[in-house]
Design brief:
The protein is mostly helical. The protein has two domains: 1-44; 45-110, no CATH class. Helices cover 47% and strands 0% of the residues. The protein contains four helices and no strands. It has helices spanning 7-17, 21-38, 57-67, 76-87. The two termini are 25 Å apart.
């Protein structure tokens, strides 16, 4: 099962945008049910960072909501994709002003 960019969930969102809430909810629950089955015993977390809360989305998100300094690593690609679109307005010159921090990754990604 692919989570990021999942076609069923994208179809659900399309139904929500069309105002077809019942169909959107049906598709969304299908996605959630498939997720629960597929990842009941498997690692679903795409985060590469070494973190005590890896795979524990509920606590991870609560921590980030509490300190409000940055977003969970798993959300960064989504947000960065949106920022990249905005960055096109200035020919991505913002990249010249940014230096990414060094992060400690899990052993399999070092």
């Amino acid at each position: 099962m692919i989570i990021e960019g999942n076609e069923k969930e994208k179809a659900a969102m399309a139904e929500f945008h069309k105002g077809n809430r019942p169909e959107g909810l049906r598709l969304q629950e299908e996605f959630a049910s498939e997720f629960r089955t597929e990842y009941a015993e498997k690692d679903h977390c795409p985060c590469k960072k070494a973190c005590r809360y890896h795979g524990n989305c509920k606590e991870c998100v609560a921590i980030h909501r509490a300190h409000q300094e940055h977003v969970p690593n798993c959300m960064r690609p989504i947000i960065n994709a949106k920022i990249k679109i905005l960055s096109e307005l200035t020919e991505h010159t913002i990249a010249n002003e940014i230096e990414a921090p060094h992060e400690v990754l899990r052993k399999e990604f070092q």
